[in-house]
Amino acid sequence: MAQMLRQGDGGHVITISTSLVDHANSGVPSALASLTRGGLNAATRALAVEYATRGIRSNAVALGIIRTPMHQPSDYVELAKLHPVGRVGEIDDVVDAVLYLEKAPFVTGEILHVDGGQSAGH
């Protein structure tokens, strides 16, 4: 933020969070994620308000399960059941969300859920 303020031409901060912050699931341990990512979500909204008049936006992307090396490939069938769309997310899904936020100058303070509908319910 300090660098963006010194340069004087605004900027954009995007943090990566998880949908589990707002939509805990008894089958997925999420206390630590809620503690850490919940703080990021709160800071995202606070920074959006605090720096809006200085041309700095702040948003977050709250993820569901994304196909990465963090999970075993054999687990994806079961993990896909956590998402109403019936599949896990791909890296491209995350990239598309980040690019959308970057190209949306009137969006700030948003927690964008990229979770295959998980945050909408089951």
UniProtKB/TrEMBL annotation:
GO terms for molecular function: oxidoreductase activity. InterPro entries: NAD(P)-bd_dom_sf (IPR036291), SDR_DHRS6-like (IPR051122), SDR_fam (IPR002347). SUPFAM superfamilies: NAD(P)-binding Rossmann-fold domains (SSF51735). It holds the Pfam family adh_short_C2. Keywords: Oxidoreductase. It comes from the Bacteria. Gene3D superfamilies: NAD(P)-binding Rossmann-like Domain. Belongs to the short-chain dehydrogenases/reductases (SDR) family. This is 3-oxoacyl-ACP reductase. It comes from Mycolicibacterium sediminis.
